[in-house]
Amino acid sequence: MEPAQGSYRVIALVVASTFFMxxxxxxxxxxALPQMAxxxxxxxxxxxxxxxxxxxxxxxxxxxxxxxxxxxxxxRVFMLAILVFTLASMGCAAAASLPQFALARAVQGIxxxxxxxxxxxxxxxxxxxxELLQATALITWPALFAPVVGPVIGxxxxxxxxxxxxxxxxxxxxAIGLTLVALVVPEQRGRLERALDVRGFLLTASALGMxxxxxxxxxxxxxxxxxxxxxxxxxxxxxxxxxxHLRRAGNPLLxxxxxxxxxxxxxxxxxxxxxxxxxxxxxxxxxxxxxxxFGLNAFEAGSFLFIYFVGNLLMxxxxxxxxxxxxxxxxxxxxxxxxxxxxxxxALLARDxxxxxxxxxxxxxxxxxxxxxxxxNTIAYADIGAAQxxxxxxxxxxxxxxxxxxGVALATLLLNGSSWLRAADGIGPxxxxxxxxxxxxxxxxxxxRFMKLPADAGAEITGRG
Length: 465
Known about the structure:
By secondary structure, the protein is mainly α.
């Protein structure tokens, strides 16, 4: 059935609000870890399991989302995912010990892992090609804003209330989200009767779980690299077996054919992945720079990053007109170079730098980041057929999750590598400068690969054709 004119906007906004809840939860607790450790009677470093287990269950259940949506109906599974996430948030707030908290976070990750790919799929099903650009812009803002405002909100709540309210906040948000989905998103019955590809699920879940856990450990490794490297290697090996199985299976869990579409491959597997790695590393490095070099506390560092939010917000008003005026190839290439330059310019930031300079760099970095994210996430679905949308949405979410973890691990590796080359005792401003310069160069070089796209790529979406 053809979607109703304009209905995508309301649906996209509802889906985006649930995305914001899930993505905010992933970063909001980072500033609360010391207080949580005190409540549980453990060392703060032990609380990392709460972050890690959530990340792992999100990644492991993402591959299941496309099949579940096709089998039982996207709206039904989406609402179930929101319910699971919300109830697990209540479990996190009520946890009296670290094991209880870790278990609740694992269940919460199951809901989050199903929520994001299925929400994006719902929007794809209800938007025409000509509406895809604006629909994608609406559902992209949570991924841009949540990592920036999360530390600020988390720091404020923890300081003036309790860390438990970081999770209790999800109860009214989840209830509102469920109500809006029930009222706005049309019912869609399951369209496929195929059985679950159990082998495909186990292989993809194992590959993603070990790969991301290995990357997480490598980001915090101090002296030993054996376990992180072993997990990354095992995850890569499982990934090879998973791809081989998915290509040969009669009814695979995931259809890999979207990777054969040039625009999807460029956005989610090749140039798009490299530039998103650099983009993901930057919000990780900046708070460390502000705290370790500038001497700011966590709340002050998070407040400084709010300028990122302003750049993201204002760029949203001009993204669609620019893409319609110049097309995806030019915007992805030229703006990608600007993304790399803005990241490299972060190397100029110093404790005694002018606040105007710092604000300008952060604003430009946030604005170009917003433009690139929207363009990448839109062009990915420009040539995807209706039958491929479920797998395409899941594959894009999986690649983005891996890219984010690689970004954090790479940033840590660059900092530690620069410090080791200088034979220094700790991380210094020189190491941050080296990391920002390397990441900026990677973003600029990878953005040039978008020149391989056809000049009219995505013309049906922008209306330039």
